[in-house]
Specification:
This protein has 2 helices and no strands. It is an all-alpha fold and 31 residues long. α1 packs antiparallel against α2.
């Protein structure tokens, strides 16, 4: 999960579709 979170931040620069993904994942940590 944490690994995907890191990639999500990098992808956020090119695609904001990952932005909400890593935000929720960071807050919950369940996904």
């Amino acid at each position: 999960v944490l690994v995907l979170t890191g990639d999500a931040r990098r992808e956020d620069v090119e695609g904001s579709k990952w932005k909400p993904t890593y935000i929720v994942d960071d807050l919950t940590g369940l996904v």
